[in-house]
Amino acid sequence: MTSVLLVVEDPGAITMLRGVIDVLQDTRSSTQLHIVAIGYAISYCQQYSTPHTAIIAEDGDSIDEIVEKIWAEHKPKVLVEGTSENISSPAFVFTRYARKRHILSIGCIDAFGNAEYRFRGNSNNALAFAPDILFVPDQPTQKAFSALGFASKSVHVVGHPVFDELREKRLLYSSAYCASLRQEMFPDAQDKMIIVFVSEVSTGLGDNQFRHSSKYTLHGSGLYKDRTSIVIEEFLHAIESHRNMLYTVLRLHPKNTFEELAHCIPKFNGISSGGSIHDILACADSVVGMTTTALLEASALGKKTLSIVPRIEEQTWLSSIAAGITASACTRSEVVAECNQLCTQRGQQSPEYIYSAFDALYPQDAIANMIEKIQFYAVAK
Predict the structure, then answer these.
(1) Taking burial as the number of CB atoms within 10 A of a residue's CB, which of 61, 186, 214, 308 is the most buried?
(2) CATH no. for residue 32?
């Protein structure tokens, strides 16, 4: 059997690779999969009883010693890695180790954005810890990495497993089913329009991007300096005149804490955290956020989406904006205008239009696409 080592850390990487993990762990697979879990991925593997080796910062051995032990035990033919927002990620040590031993490495990118920060670590070189091969969800992401120096033939557009899952769910989420779900989840909404705001954390690759600066064109009340609070305040300001007709829901990111958003939470009608986001999105009339993948998931379900960002360059972070699927705003007047359109439903796209545009952007059968290429490279090596 061919040995494959898979290293995962952040929620986005888990979402991208969990289907691949299930297939490669099947006893009928010709591939022997060994999982290394870091950070968030440890709790995920524990929750789903997924066999794994955990790397914990407090471990006595150095990261290099741990990697060497794992490598010696499993002798992988291919290294597969999900990217993270940890600039000191142990995953980079695995990449370096694979390079020294001429073992092919594959990096999985779950979403467009921050290409120049994904593999730089603590260095100034955008490709300092880059793998040999990339799996990306769409062509805009492929172009972004090609612009950094990746050969186009080494960047494979594979789609995203979650989008395949949501395509299948479109039939499940009929009008009648969504009405029942809505009554169950948000009984107080009654006949009001439900707008879900999907939160994010104000940290990430290139942390200074997530704090107020002279480049920000949104400022909120001025009391808060983090990107998330500023955008939430602008959103709440923009919908104020429509409050009586709306039921607003704040969906927390897995890494959000109630404490960090305590100043915003009372201003929403409902709060959602944990569990699957898909039922929440299916209940919504519209979905608002920044550049979260959840806006893409909402589009996959035919929902109207709005991206509010505090800097104009962030409009390139979400592929669906350039594709004309997601509306975007980066000044207060634009936020007010776009929110007015959502609330009055003027000039809105039909679900059928959104389905068509979305399916043209993302290839189908992402898990099969990734499995095929992993096994090809494993045999080729």
Answers:
(1) 308
(2) 3.40.50.2000
- CA-CA distance, 92 to 77, in Å (whole number)? 17
Q: Do the beta carbons of residue 17 and residue 50 sit within 8 Å? A: no
Phi, psi of 60 (to 5 degrees): -65, -40
- Tell whether 242 and 102 lie within a shared domain: no
160 Rama sector, left if φ>0, alpha if ψ -120 to 50, beta otherwise: beta
Model confidence band, residue 58 (pLDDT cutoffs 50, 70, 90): low
Query: Quick one: average pLDDT of 34-44?
Result: 91
Task: Verify that 148 and 185 share a domain, yes or no.
Answer: no
133: left (phi over 0), alpha (psi -120 to 50) or beta: beta
According to the model, what pLDDT value does residue 184 have? 94
pLDDT exceeds cutoff 60 at 206 = no
Do 266 and 173 have their domain in common?
Answer: yes
Count of domains forming the chain: 2
Beta bridge partners of 211: 226
* Cut 0.70: pTM above it: yes
Contact between 57 and 92 under an 8 Å Cβ cutoff? The reply is no
Same domain, 200 and 340: yes
Give residue 11's domain range: 2-160+363-380
- Residue 165 CA to residue 15 CA, distance in Å, equals 11
Tell me the one-letter amino acid at 205. Answer: L
Residue 369's closest CA among 132, 25, 89, 17?
A: 17
Q: At what angle do helices 332-344 and 227-238 cross, to 10 degrees?
A: 50
Q: How many CB atoms lie within 10 A of CB 124?
A: 7
CA distance 339 to 333: 10
C-alpha angle with apex 183: 343 to 353, nearest 5 degrees? 45
Same-domain pairing of 185 and 171: yes
Q: Are residues 72 and 194 in the same domain?
A: no
